[in-house]
Amino acid sequence: MEEHGVVISVSGSTATVRMVESGGCEGCKAAGSCKTGSGGRTLEAANQAGAKVGDHVAVRIDSSAFVKASIFVYMTPVLFLFIGAILGGAVGPDISAALSVETWQALSAVVFLALSLIVLRLYGKLVAKGKGQVAVIIRTEGK
Asked: Domain-by-domain residue ranges, the chain?
């Protein structure tokens, strides 16, 4: 997919782009919580077009990578929650019979949910370092 924005900083072969609100924002259910409308959404993009600070640019975002990342971000907590509940029910009573199986499942599910957030945080740091960069500036545009 192609998005548009303004380059706010350049560092080596990477540029930080402040994205502009697109037509798709009108029908988006997350429009109220997204910072795009207030000029807050930025992303790091490979600067293949040689854009400079202040340039209006077109940014191509790899749709397949975007979908994979979205699935990972949304499904990881759900999977960890279920795994935690299953493990808590299987192992918890062996640790202590003082708590019911359901209590062990609930406690373990919450612990695994917290672990999933740590995993997502680490994933976010990898992406921020450019290891998962999916955006590329493909051209500069007139103001």
From this structure: 2-62+132-141, 65-128
Contact in structure between 92 and 99 (CB atoms under 8 Å): yes
Distances (CA, A) of 49 to 4, 6, 92: 14, 13, 56
Q: Which class in CATH covers the domain with range 2-62+132-141?
A: mainly beta
Q: Is 82 helix (H, G, I), strand (E, B) or coil?
A: helix
Distance separating alpha carbons of residues 17 and 45, to the nearest angstrom: 7
- Please give the angle made by the CA atoms of 106, 76 and 86, to the nearest 5 degrees: 35
For strands 56-61 and 135-141, give the pairing.
antiparallel
Q: How far apart (Å, rounded) are the C-alpha atoms in residues 54 and 67?
A: 29
Assigned token pair, 13: 């072969």
C-alpha 55: how far from chain center: 25
Question: Which amino acid appears at position 80 of this protein?
Answer: F
State pLDDT tens for residues 73-109.
899 999 999 999 999 999 998 998 899 999 999 999 9
Residue type, 117: L
Coil, helix or strand for 112? helix
pTM over 0.70: no
